[in-house]
TrEMBL record:
TM annotation in the entry: 23-40, 75-92, 104-133, 145-165
Originating organism: Caenorhabditis briggsae
Upper lineage: Eukaryota, Metazoa, Ecdysozoa, Nematoda, Chromadorea
Subcellular location: Membrane
Secreted as UniProt keyword: no
Chief location of this protein within or outside the cell: membrane
Signal peptide as annotated in the record: none
GO CC annotation terms, alphabetical: membrane
UniProt name for this protein: G-protein coupled receptors family 1 profile domain-containing protein
GO molecular function, one term: G protein-coupled receptor activity
Keywords: Membrane, Transmembrane, Transmembrane helix
Amino acid sequence: MGIDRFLACQCPILYRLLCSKRTLYLLIQLTFPIIFTIYINTFSFLQRDANTTVICQVPLAISGNTFEKFNKCGLIINIGVVLIYFITYLKLRNQTALVSGLKFIFKSILYTVIFVILGWCTVTIVNIASIHLVKDVDTRNICMIYAGMGLNVACASNVFVFYIINSEYRTAIRKLFGMKSEVKLHTTLFLNSHLTNK
């Protein structure tokens, strides 16, 4: 998502070209996640040990040093996402007031990404620290399990962030709970439609 926003701000012509070829653009976006997943799953499969009992719970079922690789890669990816969003923010900050809509979109996505990245960073840092600092295996496993709570809270907070920021999400969420949504008329839309009808 961050790369998508970065391309939209930095290279709008290329972005429009990619959006016109949706299937190709989707395949390009999925290339890295697919390669990364194959890499992690392959190494995890190769390092399996039939004589070692593993806890059948995410993420403790990954054996060998694959789990550490997964956490280190996750930390690097999170740092990369922060950098991409920071560069995009600087780019948008220098734009004129005409693109205030883009700034609003970026702001709503930025809040969501901050929550999720804080959750993931907490998980990856605690997991890496547990591997190297905690000697007792059971204590290490408990630390890794509870580290995931930050990520769960971060992911769950997306609902509240979108509810506060985005009126369309607010309407959809209110409908899910059987509540009536407030209808607001935008004067600019009314004025534009009035002028075009003349």
